[in-house]
Amino acid sequence: MDDDPDDNPVIITGRKANRNHKLTDPEKEANGLLSRERAAVEHGFANLKSWRILTKVRMNTRHATTLLRALLIVANTEGQR
After folding, report:
1. Residue ranges of the domains in the chain?
2. What average pLDDT score do residues 10-38 get?
C-alpha cells in the first residue's frame, strides 16, 4: 500500500530565518502551509484527548494507528458539517 507510514517516513520542518538569512516569500508561504497542516493534526489530537479514548487503547500499535486515523477522519468530517 502506498500510504503505509512505515514505508518511507518523512519529517517536514519549516524554514527558520536568522540574522544572515531572511525568509523569502516562497519560504514564508511554505511555512504557512505547513503550519495549517500541523494545526489540523493538533486539533485532531485535542479532539481525541477530549474523548479520553487514548487512555483506553490497549492494542498493537499498527491497529491503534489505523483506529486513530479512522477516528480523526470521523472527527474532522463531523467538525466540517
Report:
1. 25-80
2. 92
